[in-house]
Amino acid sequence: MKCRHCAQELTLPLVDLGSAPPSNAYLNVDNLDKPEKWYPLRVMVCTDCGLVQTEDYAHFAELFAEDYAYFSSFSSSWLAHAERYVSDMSDRFALNQDSMVVEVAANDGYLLQYVKARNIPCLGVEPTASTAQAARDKGIDVVEEFFGVALANDLVARGYSADLTAANNVLAHVPDINDFVAGFAALLKPQGVATFEFPHLMELMKHTQFDTIYHEHFSYLSLTAVQRIFAANGLTVFDVETLSTHGGSLRVYAQRADVGAHELNARVAQMLTTEEALGMSSYEFYLDFQGRTNRIKNDLMAFLIEAQRTGKTVAAYGAAAKGNTLMNYAGVRSDLIEFVVDKNPAKQNKYMPGSRIPIVAESYLHEKKPDYVVILPWNLKQEVMAQLAYIGAWDGQFVVAVPELTVTAVGTIS
């Protein structure tokens, strides 16, 4: 396979997670007597440009179907993050009723609802029908297409040139990263700003966040690689911030390379230096990731088998894509984790892809009173532990597998 950005041959493996179905391909009861499509799940490192990427097996249209079940608004902490973003960007870039904000991957309107509340004109771009409709139900205009240069040029022709574009947790999801990035250069006004948020490869490596790897994530991104990709496609990075979201993310600020209206912040050079000092451009940096991944898998399985042997019951919380990667790589099935609770009605009464563990409403926790609740979206563990603190009434305990197995009693949560 050749690199998605620079077309160099890929020779350095990062991790082989065997095979898995698409992580958001949740099953209905009618699907349980039918086969699933499983694809190899392997990740390679480009030693030329630094882009870490999955091998190509599944077409993107299969990964982002019309019944896509990830809705951003079910996380209260993520909604608070989006509201802060809108406030901060409005202040920093003086957005008002004469501005235009375009969010690519607008999902269910979780962010643009706060733009609309400020009476700032806005538009969402969202290719999945289920989430696009949820955004429209909030009164947000949505273009239901995949984003790239062609759509950007069409939007400009229709009067949607942007003062600000937001692209949260989508840069990793695009198969043609060059066309995607070039689209922002085409869409921005001369003084416009494009912001991108994405999980930081540095944190993925540091904390062995292998469960964030799945087919829908085509790329795993460092600032070093992003800066190169942007420069090749008409954008210049002028600022970067570190965020706690999704286990450690970057927010990158970019502008049109042909204008350069915004001053370069020293944080860009500082982050590039940090990545270089950690050895992220070296072959050796990536060599032990497979072994660390296997340790986490084995520790989880040992815990679940011991729980079963001693008569303890185990449930999970959060039918997240990362949870599907974890359970499918470890080989977890419903004999070890009886059910998964999720707040999203679009996932309830369905089954996890691969493991086929049933997804249920939170009322099941009260009814079944499991001894352990495994928190699959570990990036939200504080929010989940606070929400489910009542499991302490029956001495229930929380379990998190990544980056290492931890068991926490409710009374010890700080």
Explain what the structure shows.
There is one protein chain. With 414 residues, the protein is an alpha/beta fold. The chain contains 13 helices and 17 strands. The chain has helices spanning 60-63, 76-92, 112-117, 129-136, 149-157, 177-187, 201-206, 223-232, 266-277, 289-309, 321-330, 363-368, 381-387; strands at residues 12-20, 39-45, 52-54, 101-104, 122-125, 142-143, 162-168, 188-199, 219-220, 235-243, 249-256, 314-317, 340-341, 359-360, 372-375, 397-400, 406-409. The strands form three sheets. A seven-stranded mixed beta sheet has the order 6-5-4-7-8-11-10. Strands 14-13-12-15-16-17 form a six-stranded mixed beta sheet. It has a four-stranded antiparallel beta sheet with strand order 1-2-3-9. Helix 6 (177-187) links the parallel strand 7 and strand 8. Helix 5 (149-157) runs parallel beside helix 6. The model has no long low-confidence stretch (mean pLDDT 94).
Short description:
The chain contains 13 helices and 17 strands. It is α/β, with parallel strands linked by helices and 414 residues long.
Main features:
about 425 residues, alpha/beta, seven-stranded mixed β-sheet, six-stranded mixed β-sheet, 17 strands, about 20% strand
Report the sheet with the most strands, covering strand number, pairing sense and barrel closure: 7 strands, mixed
Low-confidence stretches: none
Fraction of residues in β-strands:
15-25%
Instruction: Please tell me the overall pLDDT.
Output: 94
| Number of helical elements | 13
The percent of residues in helical segments reads 25-40%
Element pattern in H and E: EEEHHEHEHEHEHEHEHEEHHEHEEHEHEE
Number of strands: 17
- Class from helix and strand fractions: alpha/beta
Give the distance, in angstroms, between the N- and C-terminal Cα atoms: 47 Å
Nearest-angstrom radius of gyration? 21 Å
Strand order of the largest sheet: 6-5-4-7-8-11-10
| Shape label | globular
